[in-house]
Amino acid sequence: AGTLREAAEAEGVFIGSAIADHRLSDSRYNAIASTEFNSVTAENVMKWESIQPSRGSFNFAGGDRLVDFAEQNDQQVWGHTLVWHSQLPDWVENGGFDAAELTAITDEHITTVMDHYEGDIAYWDVVNEAFNEDGTFRQSVFQQTIGEEYIANAFRTAAQADPGAKLCINDYNIEGVNAKSNGMYNLVRDLLAAGVQVDCVGFQSHLILDSIPGDIRTNLQRFADLGVEVVVTELDIRIPMPADSAELQRQGDQFESVVSSCLAVDGCAGVTVWGFGDADSWVPDVFEGQGAACLYDENYQPKPAYDGVLAGLGGE
Ligand code: G3I
Predict the structure, then answer these.
(1) Of 43, 129, 234, 247, which one is the catalytic site residue?
(2) Which of 10, 123, 129, 180 holds its CA 20 to 30 A away from the CA of 2?
(3) Structural domain span for residue 20
(4) Ligand 1 centroid to 86 CA: how many Å?
(5) From the CB of 284, is ligand 1 less than 6 Å away?
(6) What is the value of ipTM here, to two decimals?
(7) Annotated catalytic, 234?
């Protein structure tokens, strides 16, 4: 059987993974990361707290390592993420800035980071997780201080900083049609109508076994009909632990269904999984008693989930 990457390339889409910087030194991890994927996303090292931990002091070391890794392996890099309420350093979150100051700080962050990586990054998550579950705007420090125009402002600044990068907005629990995805839909429609460059919408897809929305294709299609690319950006499917073999089989089928739902949409650019090995997944740290959410088990052996993604990409 071929690799995920070969199957994706044959379909003209990308297959990506989040990459944990500190795991690249493990040879098994590194081998899978370099051969199975043609796109990589920084799991943490391009977030604000990593890249500008204190005001005006930028640390690009981790991001540069990922860019070098991708170049060696002929992979695209997905930049994650510029404006997000989480993993935001305290000096921004609790700085007590007014709207003009916070806008200037955000513009400087976006411009400095995008300039540094200009030409290296295919897609940027410009704004991440702007919504509440009911489709209203999350009361982040950006929303509270600047108001919802922080979003349009971030995209305008990003478009100037790196005109070659595709600019995305990304969120979770927007995979099916629901109040939150309606909020996202209305925002993207309005931004486009206002002439703001938005190239893509990222559907994180942190999903739960046996609870995959049945209308992913329909939902992604309505976004594609707005003229933006749609991408599954952080796919994983978590299971109550311990997972039995029947559950792992169903998980494989559900991975296949999510991937094929995206590929069925004209305008689906690709799919990224949020880490490929259960040993490295964020899930057990956040959802107690859940795990096994990835394509490979704790020993980097492929699971039915791997075969599901391969099948979803049209491979075998
Ligand atoms: O870097 C420190 C390390 O020095 C320390 O020893 C260790 C002890 O806990 O913590 C390390 O920081 C952790 C960091 O990951 C790097 O490993 C943080 O505690 C931990 O909270 C952080 O979690 C990340 C999480 O975002 C934070 O929100 C996960 O790795 C990452 O997978 C996760 O990714 C997010 C996406 O960015 C956005 N969408 C949801 C997704 C899952 O939460």
Answers:
(1) 234
(2) 123
(3) 4-312
(4) 10
(5) no
(6) 0.92
(7) yes
